Amino acid sequence: MATSTQRALPVFEAAHLLSWCTPAGFSGLYQGRRQSVGRCDAKPCCSPVDGEQIASIGQPDATEIAETVAAAQLAFLQWREIPAPRRGELVRRIGDLARARKTALADLITLEVGKIRQEALGEVQELIDICDFAVGLSRQLYGLTISSERPQHRLQEQWHPLGPVVVITAFNFPMAVWAWNAMLALVCGDTLLWKPSPQTPLCAIACHALVVEAAASMSDVPDNLSAVIPGDAAAGAQLAADARIALVSATGSCRMGRALAQTVAARLGRYLLELGGNNAMIICPSANLDLALRAILFAAVGTTGQRCTSLRRLIVHESILEPLADSLCRAYRSLRIGDPFESDTHIGPLIDAAAGRHFEKALLRAQAD
Known about the structure:
Elements: H1 4-14, E1 21-22, E2 25-26, E3 29-31, E4 34-36, E5 40-46, E6 53-59, H2 62-79, H3 84-100, H4 102-113, H5 117-137, E7 145-147, E8 154-156, E9 165-168, H6 176-187, E10 192-195, H7 201-216, E11 226-228, H8 233-241, E12 247-251, H9 254-266, E13 270-274, E14 279-283, H10 289-301, E15 311-316, H11 321-334, H12 353-368
Parallel strand pairs: 9-10, 9-12, 10-11, 12-13, 14-15
Antiparallel strand pairs: 1-2, 3-4, 3-11, 5-6, 7-8
Helix pairs in contact: 1-4, 3-5, 3-7, 4-5, 5-6, 8-9
């Protein structure tokens, strides 16, 4: 098996990452075509496939983050004046670039996150699909026309762009979740500030490259339309507290969501949260057990169980408990755990050693119960 270090260079090249890298490593801040090394110490980026370091990522300080927000605000004043269908044209071009680089982007997800090949390809397809959806939406930003009790008058509803939008994403869907937010924000006339998971900065830089390259082909797209801000929770907290941010959309743990909601609410700001779940499946006596078995298996082990939608509980009628349990045990024994780049691997690695320790503790608790 090739090591992650050996795989990194061809993956970076195919994903058009090398032009965004300096001799010292990847920069700590990207906005439009501009990049800054970052004034804080760089941090390693390691692949969960074998734990090897595949890159070094600079880290911005608070001043750099504040300057990036200011630049996004100025870009917003230009972008909101561009007609929505024209904004949709930018998104269409982003989607076309993603189609052309689908395999390369999926390889990058597998390298940086450890997703198996089919799941990684599926995630890039989600990015492409939301681009298609957003392009159509750019010609459907309707408002209501309402009758008025005043003669020769009418009421008209009109939706306006919000402003700079912060997107905070988790490691488990390092491209799709950003795209769900970003493509809609772009057609609605908003600028973007993306704080990716500290574990997946390379996927963010590769997606940023799509936006910048598409924007370069259109003369009316302002500079600084999109930014990537690598960093830890402190960077996210600073962005959430900034009154210039019109909306914060964050995906992650419930603990993160509670803290972020308090910060944004303190300034009466807007936020969207997609947090963890405790998902259950109910299996009734009338269920098709073969179909239920496949649904349980994918829901539980997809993305190595690291999704907010992962199955955590089964509620099974007592009359079918024993045959279903036997079938599940056989199915789990047939799963192949291994290198996520191999086509016959069903389950790849957890994201890092800390996740592995958490998983082992959960097993011990389950056995004790």
